[in-house]
Amino acid sequence: MTAAYKSIVDRFATSIRDGRVPAGTRLPTHRALAREHRIALATASRVYAELAAMGLVAGEPGRGTFVRDQRGHDGVEPSRRLPVPRIADLSFNQPLAAEQTSQLRHALRELSTSGNLEAVLHQQPPGGRSRERAIVATHLLDRGIDVPPARVLLANGAQQALDAVLTATTRPGDVIAVDALTYPGFALLAAAHSLEIAPIPSGAAGPDLQALDRLCAARPVRAIYTIPTVHNPLGWTLDRPTRERLVAIARARDAWIIEDGTYAFLDEAPPLPVQALAPERTFYVASLSKNVATGLRFGFLVAPGAHEQQIVRSLRTSTWGVSGLITALATGWIADGTVARLEKTRRDDATERQQIARAAFRQLDYTAHPSSYFGWLRLPPDLRADQAASHLADVGILVTTADAFASTDHAPHALRLALATPAIDQLADVLERVSRTVDSMPR
User: Fold this and answer.
1) Peptide bond into 233 cis (omega under 30)
2) CATH number of the domain that 34 lies in?
3) Which single residue of 104, 240, 334, 401 could bond 271 by disulfide (Cβ 3.0 to 4.6 Å)?
C-alpha cells in the first residue's frame, strides 16, 4: 500500500509540474480519489497532504483541493526570479536609512584605531562577554525589561536564540502553542526539533485565549510562542489585560512562554513585555535585524535564571560564541545612541509607508499596525492567493502568500506585503499597481 500511495503522489506531482494538470484545476474529492485508486480514505488524504507539503496543491474547506499556480512567489524560501523585469520586492523587508553606509564606515574606522582591536579576534564565550551583555541589559531597560547582565545572553541573530531556547526547554514530541498565523522561522525550528505545532485561532486584536486555555487543558503544552507587540504578520499589539490573561494561563498550565520582541521597537509606547509580567517562565528574544540591518546577525535573549546554563550550553553546541567583530559593532551602536536614533527613523518611515498603503488599499481588506513595515491584505473570497501572487509576478512584483505564515492545514487567501524595501518615492505607484492587479483579476 505504501508503494501504491507513493506512486500516486509521484504521478500527480509529475503531471502538475509538466503542465498536464494546469493551475486552478480542482482535483477529485478524497473519497473519489480513494475509489479511483482503490485505496483507503486516510491514504487518499495522505496523498493530498504530501502534494500540499510540496507546494503543488492547496485545500480549501468546503470547496476542494486545487492545483496551485507555480509562478507565484510564496513560502519561506520564495523564488527570486520573475518572468518580467522586477519592479518591486514586497516579499522581504530590507529597511536601510540613507546615512547607514557612512555610519558603518565611521564605526569600522573607530574600531580599527581602538586600543583593544585584538580582542575582536579572540574567541568569545558562549552567551557573550560580561561587558557587552551589560550594554544590552541597559538597552533592554527601554523595553521595560530590568534584569542583571548575567541574565542576558548574546546570539548570532534571533533565530539562533530561538533555537537555543527550544534546545534547552523541549524534547521531541512536545506540543508548542502558536498563533494560527505566525513567524515562519519558528515553524522551521519546531520541525527541526520534532515538535508538534498546535495553532491558536486569532481575531483582529489577538489570539483567542479561551481556545488557548482549552488547548492547554486538553494537551500537555510545553511552551507558548507569542509575538505580543507588532505581531508578524497581523500587526496587533496586545493590551495589558490580554498579556496578563496569557500569563495566567501559562502559570496555571505550567507552560513556558517564548516572547519574540524583534518588531517591538516599532510600537513607540507598548504595554510592558510579557517577560516583565512573568520573568520566572518567559524567554524574551530579539535582535538588531529590523531596527539596524538584516545582515547584522546580532541577537539576544533573556532567560529565567534556572535555565541560563542550559541556554549557554545550547549556544556553545551550535556556534560556540558570537562574532567578536559584529558584537563590537552592535554594542558600540547601542552604547553611543545610534540604535535609538535608527529606531526613531524606522518608526517615522514605517508610519509614512503605512499611510501610503492605506491610501492604495482603501477599497480592499487591509490590516496593519500604524507604524509597522508590513501589512496583511485579505483577498476577495473568489480569489486564491497563489493566483494573485502569480499575476503580480507577471507585472514584476514579488509578494508572499499566507501559506508561509500559517500553522494550520488551510491558509487563508491573503498576502503579506513587506513595505520597507521599495524606495519611498516609488511605493505609492507599486502599491497602486498591486491594488489594480488584484482588482482586475478574473474571478
Assistant:
1) yes
2) 1.10.10.10
3) 240
Task: Record the cell numbers describing residue 230, joined without a space.
Answer: 507588532
| Backbone region of residue 347 per phi and psi (left: phi > 0; alpha: psi in -120 to 50; beta: other values) | alpha
Which residue range(s) make up the domain with 19? Answer: 2-67
Total count of domains within the chain: 3
pLDDT computed for residue 81 by the predictor: 57
The answer to whether position 81 is within a domain reads: no
- How many C-beta neighbours within 10 Å does residue 440 have? 8
The β-bridge relationship of strands 299-302 and 365-367 is unpaired
The single residue listed with the C-alpha cell 500511495 is: 5
Domain stops at, among 280, 310, 336: 336
The percentage of residues in the chain with a pLDDT greater than 90, rounded to a whole number, is 56
Helices (H), ranges, 54-129: 100-112
Q: What is the DSSP string of 122-168?
A: SPPPTT--HHHHHHHHHHHHTTT----GGGEEEESSHHHHHHHHHHH
Domain of 293, CATH number, reads: 3.40.640.10
Same domain assignment for residues 258 and 322: yes
Sign for the CA dihedral angle at 423, 428, 429, 433 comes to positive
d(CA 20, CA 2): 25
Q: Over the stretch 395-411, which tens digit does the pLDDT of each residue have?
A: 889 999 998 999 988 88
Could you report the per-residue pLDDT of 159-191, keeping only the tens digit for each? Answer: 999 999 999 999 999 999 999 999 999 999 999
- How is the chain split among helix, strand and coil, in percent rounded to 5? 45, 15, 40
Q: Return the CATH number at 435.
A: 3.90.1150.10
Per residue in 250-285, is it b (16+ CB within 10 Å) or e — as a string? Answer: beebebbbbbbbbbbbbbeebbebbbbbbbebbbbb
Query: Which element (helix H / strand E) includes 169?
Result: helix 158-169
pLDDT score at 189: 95
The predicted model scores a pTM of 0.83
pLDDT digits (tens, 9 = 90+) for 272-327: 999 999 999 999 999 999 998 888 899 999 999 888 888 888 888 888 878 888 89
- Note whether 319 and 367 are same-domain residues: no
| Boundary residue ending a domain (315, 336, 357) | 336
204-to-47, 207, 235, 237, 383 alpha-carbon distances in Å: 34, 8, 9, 10, 21
Q: Write down the residue that cell numbers 527541526 correspond to.
A: 192
Same domain assignment for residues 200 and 316: yes
Residue 382 CB partners (closer than 8 Å, separation 6+): 443
